[in-house]
Amino acid sequence: MEMGLSQADAARHLHVSLNVVQRLWDIFQSEDSVSRKHVSGRPRVITPAEDRFLVLSGRRRRNITVPQLFADHFVASGRRISATTVQRRLHNADLYARRPVVRVPLKGRQRRAQLCWAREHVS
């Protein structure tokens, strides 16, 4: 705006919507700056890109454990994060710990006998 552009031209130049430019210009005129205000809460430990890395690693290697995942994250980024953080990120992506059901494989005759028993005892 100080360069003489209209709000619409500034929005097109910055590839943002006109509402964003209008809101920021109003804030700038009233406060003489557009810096981010302090927000409550603890700052996030990892970035959204690191979140995606953890989720992608968890989906690609379904048998990997949380300690292995945060060790992989440390190797990739050089920053330590807790196992709880990794678990939370995986839970947000609907990835939970599952134990596979261990069953003895049944032969055809055993399956038929089991089905016959179930039909007899259905009620």
From TrEMBL:
Chief localisation class:
nucleus
Residue limits of the Transposase Tc1-like domain? Answer: 52-122
Where does the record place it? Nucleus
> One MF term in GO for this entry?
DNA binding
GO biological process terms on file = DNA integration; DNA transposition
A cellular component term from Gene Ontology for this protein is: nucleus
Q: What is this protein called?
A: Transposase Tc1-like domain-containing protein
